Amino acid sequence: MAKYLGMLMAATAFVLASVPAWSSSGAVFISSEKDNTITVLDGKTQQQIGVIKTCKRPRHMQFTPDRKRLIAACGDDGSAVVVDVESRKVVDKVALEQGAEIFDVSRDGKTLYFSNEDEATIVGIDLVTKKIVKEIKVGEEPEGVLIAADGKSLYAASEVASLVHVIDLSNGKVIKNVPVGKRPRRLMLTPDGKELWVTNELGASVSVIRTSDYAVTDTIKFEPKGFRPDNVTPVGMAMSSDGKTAFVTLGRANHVAIVDVATKTVKKMVLVGKRAWGVALARDNSLLYVTNGLSDDVSVVDVASGRAIKSVKVGRVPHSVVIDD
Fold first, then answer.
1. Domain range enclosing 87
2. Using CA atoms, how far apart are residues 288 and 308, in angstroms rounded to an integer?
3. In what side-by-side order are the strands of the sheet with 37-41?
4. What is the mean pLDDT of residues 287-312?
5. Is-contact 320 278, C-beta < 8 A?
6. CATH code: domain of residue 287
7. Is 108 within the bounds of a domain?
8. What confidence tens digit (pLDDT) does each residue in 115-159 have?
9. Are the C-beta atoms of residues 41 and 324 closer than 8 Å to each other?
Protein backbone atom coordinates (compact mmCIF):
# COMPACT_ATOMS: atom_id res chain seq x y z
CA MET A 1 0.00 0.00 0.00
CA ALA A 2 3.04 2.22 -0.01
CA LYS A 3 2.15 3.25 -3.56
CA TYR A 4 -0.51 5.51 -2.09
CA LEU A 5 1.86 7.52 0.02
CA GLY A 6 3.64 10.63 -1.20
CA MET A 7 6.30 12.85 0.22
CA LEU A 8 4.42 15.52 2.15
CA MET A 9 6.11 18.81 2.91
CA ALA A 10 5.19 20.13 6.35
CA ALA A 11 2.20 18.10 7.49
CA THR A 12 1.14 21.05 9.58
CA ALA A 13 -0.08 22.67 6.36
CA PHE A 14 -2.98 20.24 6.63
CA VAL A 15 -3.45 19.72 10.34
CA LEU A 16 -5.31 22.32 12.34
CA ALA A 17 -6.27 22.38 15.96
CA SER A 18 -8.91 24.91 15.07
CA VAL A 19 -10.03 26.65 11.91
CA PRO A 20 -9.15 30.35 12.05
CA ALA A 21 -10.77 33.11 10.07
CA TRP A 22 -9.24 33.68 6.66
CA SER A 23 -8.73 36.68 4.45
CA SER A 24 -10.28 35.61 1.16
CA SER A 25 -8.97 36.76 -2.20
CA GLY A 26 -12.20 36.20 -4.11
CA ALA A 27 -10.22 34.28 -6.73
CA VAL A 28 -11.91 31.56 -8.78
CA PHE A 29 -9.91 28.37 -9.50
CA ILE A 30 -10.76 26.11 -12.47
CA SER A 31 -9.04 22.78 -13.18
CA SER A 32 -8.27 21.88 -16.80
CA GLU A 33 -8.04 18.17 -17.63
CA LYS A 34 -6.26 18.56 -20.97
CA ASP A 35 -3.89 21.41 -20.15
CA ASN A 36 -2.77 20.02 -16.77
CA THR A 37 -3.35 23.43 -15.22
CA ILE A 38 -5.54 25.40 -12.87
CA THR A 39 -6.76 28.71 -14.30
CA VAL A 40 -7.27 31.53 -11.79
CA LEU A 41 -9.85 34.27 -12.37
CA ASP A 42 -10.45 37.52 -10.53
CA GLY A 43 -13.80 37.07 -8.78
CA LYS A 44 -14.89 40.65 -9.46
CA THR A 45 -13.93 41.03 -13.11
CA GLN A 46 -13.72 37.36 -14.16
CA GLN A 47 -10.44 38.23 -15.88
CA GLN A 48 -7.64 35.66 -15.86
CA ILE A 49 -5.00 36.50 -13.26
CA GLY A 50 -2.92 33.34 -13.27
CA VAL A 51 -2.29 29.80 -14.49
CA ILE A 52 -0.90 27.11 -12.18
CA LYS A 53 0.86 24.10 -13.68
CA THR A 54 -0.18 20.86 -11.97
CA CYS A 55 0.14 17.11 -12.37
CA LYS A 56 -1.57 15.24 -15.21
CA ARG A 57 -5.34 15.65 -15.64
CA PRO A 58 -6.37 17.69 -12.59
CA ARG A 59 -10.04 17.26 -11.75
CA HIS A 60 -11.63 17.52 -8.31
CA MET A 61 -10.39 20.36 -6.08
CA GLN A 62 -11.01 21.25 -2.45
CA PHE A 63 -9.66 23.70 0.10
CA THR A 64 -8.11 22.52 3.35
CA PRO A 65 -10.18 23.47 6.43
CA ASP A 66 -8.13 26.63 7.04
CA ARG A 67 -8.52 27.52 3.33
CA LYS A 68 -4.82 28.29 3.03
CA ARG A 69 -4.21 25.34 0.71
CA LEU A 70 -6.02 24.01 -2.34
CA ILE A 71 -5.76 20.29 -3.13
CA ALA A 72 -6.32 19.08 -6.70
CA ALA A 73 -6.50 15.37 -7.57
CA CYS A 74 -4.90 14.38 -10.88
CA GLY A 75 -6.33 11.27 -12.48
CA ASP A 76 -3.60 10.34 -14.95
CA ASP A 77 -0.58 10.22 -12.67
CA GLY A 78 -2.22 9.06 -9.46
CA SER A 79 -1.39 12.06 -7.34
CA ALA A 80 -2.69 15.30 -5.91
CA VAL A 81 -0.98 18.66 -5.87
CA VAL A 82 -1.21 21.10 -2.97
CA VAL A 83 -1.38 24.77 -3.93
CA ASP A 84 -0.70 27.67 -1.59
CA VAL A 85 -3.75 29.87 -2.15
CA GLU A 86 -2.01 33.18 -1.44
CA SER A 87 1.05 32.65 -3.64
CA ARG A 88 -0.76 30.40 -6.13
CA LYS A 89 2.22 28.06 -6.23
CA VAL A 90 2.38 24.27 -5.92
CA VAL A 91 4.01 23.56 -2.55
CA ASP A 92 3.50 19.82 -2.24
CA LYS A 93 2.49 16.63 -4.03
CA VAL A 94 0.73 13.58 -2.58
CA ALA A 95 0.77 10.13 -4.21
CA LEU A 96 -2.71 8.60 -4.49
CA GLU A 97 -3.59 6.14 -7.25
CA GLN A 98 -4.31 6.09 -10.98
CA GLY A 99 -7.86 7.27 -11.60
CA ALA A 100 -8.27 8.96 -8.21
CA GLU A 101 -10.80 11.74 -8.64
CA ILE A 102 -13.11 12.73 -5.80
CA PHE A 103 -11.94 13.16 -2.22
CA ASP A 104 -12.88 14.85 1.02
CA VAL A 105 -10.78 16.08 3.93
CA SER A 106 -11.73 15.53 7.57
CA ARG A 107 -12.82 18.56 9.58
CA ASP A 108 -9.58 18.56 11.57
CA GLY A 109 -7.52 18.42 8.38
CA LYS A 110 -5.74 15.24 9.45
CA THR A 111 -7.17 12.69 7.01
CA LEU A 112 -7.86 12.69 3.29
CA TYR A 113 -10.35 10.14 1.92
CA PHE A 114 -10.42 9.40 -1.81
CA SER A 115 -12.21 6.99 -4.11
CA ASN A 116 -10.11 4.39 -5.93
CA GLU A 117 -12.18 3.37 -8.96
CA ASP A 118 -9.79 0.61 -10.05
CA GLU A 119 -9.82 -1.19 -6.70
CA ALA A 120 -13.41 -0.31 -5.68
CA THR A 121 -12.23 1.11 -2.38
CA ILE A 122 -12.32 4.26 -0.31
CA VAL A 123 -8.83 5.01 0.99
CA GLY A 124 -8.01 7.20 3.99
CA ILE A 125 -4.54 8.69 4.42
CA ASP A 126 -3.37 10.14 7.72
CA LEU A 127 -1.64 13.35 6.72
CA VAL A 128 0.41 13.45 9.93
CA THR A 129 1.91 9.94 9.93
CA LYS A 130 1.71 9.61 6.14
CA LYS A 131 0.18 6.16 6.52
CA ILE A 132 -3.00 4.60 5.19
CA VAL A 133 -5.47 4.37 8.04
CA LYS A 134 -8.51 3.09 6.15
CA GLU A 135 -9.08 0.98 3.06
CA ILE A 136 -12.75 0.18 2.70
CA LYS A 137 -14.25 -2.08 0.04
CA VAL A 138 -17.32 -0.62 -1.68
CA GLY A 139 -19.26 -1.08 -4.92
CA GLU A 140 -17.64 -0.95 -8.34
CA GLU A 141 -16.36 2.39 -9.65
CA PRO A 142 -16.82 4.57 -6.57
CA GLU A 143 -16.67 8.29 -7.29
CA GLY A 144 -18.43 10.75 -5.00
CA VAL A 145 -16.99 10.97 -1.48
CA LEU A 146 -18.41 13.19 1.27
CA ILE A 147 -17.93 13.27 5.02
CA ALA A 148 -21.16 13.58 7.02
CA ALA A 149 -22.03 16.77 8.89
CA ASP A 150 -21.00 15.27 12.25
CA GLY A 151 -17.71 13.99 10.85
CA LYS A 152 -18.43 10.46 12.07
CA SER A 153 -19.63 8.91 8.82
CA LEU A 154 -18.65 9.04 5.17
CA TYR A 155 -20.87 8.73 2.11
CA ALA A 156 -19.55 7.13 -1.08
CA ALA A 157 -21.34 6.76 -4.42
CA SER A 158 -20.81 3.59 -6.48
CA GLU A 159 -21.49 4.26 -10.17
CA VAL A 160 -21.87 0.63 -11.27
CA ALA A 161 -23.82 -0.60 -8.24
CA SER A 162 -26.13 2.46 -8.21
CA LEU A 163 -25.66 2.67 -4.46
CA VAL A 164 -24.67 5.21 -1.86
CA HIS A 165 -22.64 3.53 0.88
CA VAL A 166 -22.76 4.89 4.42
CA ILE A 167 -19.47 4.17 6.19
CA ASP A 168 -18.76 4.39 9.93
CA LEU A 169 -15.38 6.10 10.10
CA SER A 170 -14.64 4.80 13.59
CA ASN A 171 -14.28 1.23 12.32
CA GLY A 172 -14.30 1.56 8.53
CA LYS A 173 -17.43 -0.58 8.14
CA VAL A 174 -20.21 -0.04 5.62
CA ILE A 175 -23.33 0.30 7.75
CA LYS A 176 -25.89 0.99 5.03
CA ASN A 177 -26.27 0.59 1.28
CA VAL A 178 -28.84 2.98 -0.18
CA PRO A 179 -30.16 2.23 -3.71
CA VAL A 180 -30.43 5.40 -5.80
CA GLY A 181 -30.65 6.19 -9.53
CA LYS A 182 -28.47 4.93 -12.34
CA ARG A 183 -24.78 5.90 -12.16
CA PRO A 184 -24.67 8.15 -9.07
CA ARG A 185 -21.86 10.68 -9.32
CA ARG A 186 -21.75 13.51 -6.77
CA LEU A 187 -22.99 14.09 -3.24
CA MET A 188 -24.13 17.23 -1.41
CA LEU A 189 -25.55 17.86 2.05
CA THR A 190 -28.10 20.52 2.86
CA PRO A 191 -26.74 23.14 5.32
CA ASP A 192 -28.67 21.55 8.21
CA GLY A 193 -27.25 18.11 7.36
CA LYS A 194 -30.71 16.53 7.21
CA GLU A 195 -30.67 15.67 3.51
CA LEU A 196 -28.07 14.12 1.24
CA TRP A 197 -28.51 14.90 -2.46
CA VAL A 198 -27.12 12.52 -5.08
CA THR A 199 -26.87 13.21 -8.82
CA ASN A 200 -27.73 10.22 -11.01
CA GLU A 201 -25.89 10.82 -14.27
CA LEU A 202 -27.70 8.17 -16.33
CA GLY A 203 -30.99 8.59 -14.49
CA ALA A 204 -31.50 12.27 -15.37
CA SER A 205 -32.32 12.84 -11.72
CA VAL A 206 -31.28 13.63 -8.17
CA SER A 207 -32.08 11.27 -5.31
CA VAL A 208 -32.74 12.89 -1.92
CA ILE A 209 -31.77 10.80 1.11
CA ARG A 210 -32.95 11.59 4.64
CA THR A 211 -29.83 11.25 6.75
CA SER A 212 -31.66 10.29 9.96
CA ASP A 213 -32.68 6.89 8.57
CA TYR A 214 -31.15 6.82 5.06
CA ALA A 215 -34.52 6.61 3.34
CA VAL A 216 -34.83 8.01 -0.19
CA THR A 217 -37.60 10.57 0.25
CA ASP A 218 -37.65 12.25 -3.17
CA THR A 219 -36.43 11.87 -6.72
CA ILE A 220 -36.12 15.07 -8.73
CA LYS A 221 -36.34 14.53 -12.51
CA PHE A 222 -34.85 16.90 -15.07
CA GLU A 223 -36.52 17.35 -18.46
CA PRO A 224 -35.09 20.36 -20.32
CA LYS A 225 -36.92 21.05 -23.56
CA GLY A 226 -35.30 19.79 -26.74
CA PHE A 227 -33.12 17.12 -25.11
CA ARG A 228 -33.58 13.38 -25.07
CA PRO A 229 -33.47 11.77 -21.61
CA ASP A 230 -30.14 10.05 -22.36
CA ASN A 231 -28.57 13.47 -22.98
CA VAL A 232 -29.63 14.78 -19.58
CA THR A 233 -26.65 13.82 -17.41
CA PRO A 234 -26.65 15.63 -14.04
CA VAL A 235 -23.35 15.71 -12.18
CA GLY A 236 -22.34 18.85 -10.26
CA MET A 237 -24.32 20.52 -7.47
CA ALA A 238 -24.22 23.63 -5.32
CA MET A 239 -26.63 25.05 -2.74
CA SER A 240 -27.38 28.52 -1.43
CA SER A 241 -26.18 29.31 2.08
CA ASP A 242 -29.75 29.45 3.39
CA GLY A 243 -30.47 25.99 2.00
CA LYS A 244 -33.44 27.15 -0.04
CA THR A 245 -32.09 26.82 -3.57
CA ALA A 246 -30.02 24.13 -5.27
CA PHE A 247 -28.19 24.29 -8.58
CA VAL A 248 -27.58 21.14 -10.63
CA THR A 249 -25.50 20.92 -13.81
CA LEU A 250 -27.09 18.76 -16.50
CA GLY A 251 -24.02 17.67 -18.44
CA ARG A 252 -24.72 17.06 -22.12
CA ALA A 253 -28.03 18.91 -21.81
CA ASN A 254 -26.02 22.17 -21.55
CA HIS A 255 -28.19 23.63 -18.77
CA VAL A 256 -28.15 24.27 -15.06
CA ALA A 257 -31.35 23.45 -13.19
CA ILE A 258 -32.41 25.79 -10.39
CA VAL A 259 -34.32 23.76 -7.80
CA ASP A 260 -36.53 24.80 -4.89
CA VAL A 261 -35.20 22.69 -2.01
CA ALA A 262 -38.39 22.71 0.06
CA THR A 263 -40.73 21.59 -2.72
CA LYS A 264 -38.15 19.62 -4.74
CA THR A 265 -39.35 21.30 -7.93
CA VAL A 266 -37.35 22.76 -10.80
CA LYS A 267 -37.90 26.52 -10.89
CA LYS A 268 -35.86 27.33 -13.96
CA MET A 269 -33.43 25.95 -16.54
CA VAL A 270 -30.45 28.17 -17.42
CA LEU A 271 -28.70 27.63 -20.75
CA VAL A 272 -24.91 27.56 -20.36
CA GLY A 273 -22.04 26.04 -22.40
CA LYS A 274 -21.46 22.55 -23.76
CA ARG A 275 -21.45 19.72 -21.22
CA ALA A 276 -22.07 21.63 -18.00
CA TRP A 277 -20.11 19.80 -15.32
CA GLY A 278 -18.63 21.52 -12.27
CA VAL A 279 -20.36 24.30 -10.36
CA ALA A 280 -19.58 26.72 -7.52
CA LEU A 281 -21.69 29.42 -5.90
CA ALA A 282 -20.21 32.66 -4.56
CA ARG A 283 -20.49 33.03 -0.79
CA ASP A 284 -22.90 35.97 -1.17
CA ASN A 285 -25.10 33.79 -3.44
CA SER A 286 -24.92 36.34 -6.26
CA LEU A 287 -22.95 34.51 -8.96
CA LEU A 288 -22.78 30.89 -10.06
CA TYR A 289 -19.76 29.55 -11.96
CA VAL A 290 -20.26 26.56 -14.28
CA THR A 291 -17.49 24.66 -16.06
CA ASN A 292 -18.37 23.55 -19.59
CA GLY A 293 -16.16 20.63 -20.57
CA LEU A 294 -16.80 20.63 -24.32
CA SER A 295 -16.73 24.38 -24.97
CA ASP A 296 -13.63 25.05 -22.85
CA ASP A 297 -15.22 27.90 -20.94
CA VAL A 298 -16.90 28.90 -17.71
CA SER A 299 -20.40 30.35 -17.68
CA VAL A 300 -21.09 33.05 -15.09
CA VAL A 301 -24.74 32.99 -14.03
CA ASP A 302 -26.46 35.90 -12.30
CA VAL A 303 -28.53 34.14 -9.65
CA ALA A 304 -31.06 36.95 -9.16
CA SER A 305 -32.08 37.00 -12.83
CA GLY A 306 -31.42 33.33 -13.46
CA ARG A 307 -29.45 33.84 -16.65
CA ALA A 308 -25.89 33.46 -17.89
CA ILE A 309 -24.28 36.89 -18.16
CA LYS A 310 -20.77 35.99 -19.24
CA SER A 311 -18.70 33.23 -20.84
CA VAL A 312 -15.00 33.10 -19.94
CA LYS A 313 -12.51 31.03 -21.92
CA VAL A 314 -10.29 28.88 -19.70
CA GLY A 315 -8.12 25.77 -20.20
CA ARG A 316 -9.14 22.79 -22.30
CA VAL A 317 -11.80 20.52 -20.78
CA PRO A 318 -12.48 22.45 -17.57
CA HIS A 319 -13.64 20.10 -14.84
CA SER A 320 -14.07 21.65 -11.39
CA VAL A 321 -14.39 25.14 -9.99
CA VAL A 322 -13.92 26.50 -6.46
CA ILE A 323 -13.99 30.03 -5.08
CA ASP A 324 -11.70 31.52 -2.44
CA ASP A 325 -14.38 33.55 -0.70
1. 1-16+27-137
2. 9
3. 48-53, 37-41, 28-32, 318-323
4. 98
5. yes
6. 2.120.10.30
7. yes
8. 999 899 999 988 777 778 899 999 999 999 999 999 999 999 999
9. no
